[in-house]
Design goal:
By secondary structure, this protein is mainly α. It contains seven helices and six strands.
């Protein structure tokens, strides 16, 4: 993802290089903040990608594969910790606000309220700041509330309406492209579906 404000920005890279991290971006304060975090996460990403490659290319028995995914999950948790620490320590950076709002970090409401008040006034006026304000100070859905119905499409283009699902339980998994955690979740869910498909609808 590229984030630019009202700035003069230069982007330099090889068109044939498919790795977005190889781009050289200058002039964007938001991207400078992102670069700080990316450098912190790089060792974890390398370990994570190495494990993923082993699982995809090696012949592992079920116990070995589960051990690798457990290791993968541990690294993912470490990356999440680094990102949370980055947000708390960098409320002067717009990218910390973007990261907080766009990806659920599991902060308690009182922490979200404190973080909101720590971001500069200019950042709080952005759409990210307005969204954080809503999340931090409004009680929209509480535990035990019925979920509102909505319609969405899956990866195959099939449309699902929540109110049309009749099983006792529904597991909704929202994914985005190039998301390591989403990839891991999908692989785990695909194993659960045949076992619980009569009592749980997987979407």
């Amino acid at each position: 993802d590229l984030y630019f404000g009202n700035e003069t920005v230069s982007v330099d890279g090889d068109f044939n290089d498919k790795n977005p991290r190889s781009l050289k971006i200058e002039g964007s304060q938001t991207m400078d903040g992102k670069k700080v975090l990316e450098d912190m996460l790089l060792p974890y990403r390398n370990k994570r990608d190495s494990i993923k490659q082993v699982v995809k290319t090696s012949t592992l028995n079920e116990t070995e594969e589960q051990a690798k995914w457990k290791e993968y999950k541990a690294i993912f948790d470490q990356m999440d910790r680094v990102e949370r620490e980055f947000i708390v320590a960098n409320t002067d950076k717009l990218y910390a606000l973007i990261l907080l709002v766009d990806y659920d970090r599991g902060f308690e409401k009182d922490t979200l309220q404190r973080l909101y008040n720590q971001f500069p006034q200019e950042a709080r006026k952005t759409r990210y700041g307005q969204k954080l304000k809503f999340i931090a100070f409004e009680d929209v859905i509480k535990d035990g509330d019925p979920c509102f119905s909505f319609t969405a499409s899956d990866f195959n283009g099939k449309t699902h309406n929540l109110s049309g699902i009749k099983t006792d339980y529904v597991l909704l998994n929202f994914c985005r492209p190039r998301c390591a955690g989403c990839d891991l979740a999908l692989q785990q869910i695909s194993k659960l579906n045949p076992i619980y498909k009569d009592s749980i609808t997987f979407v």
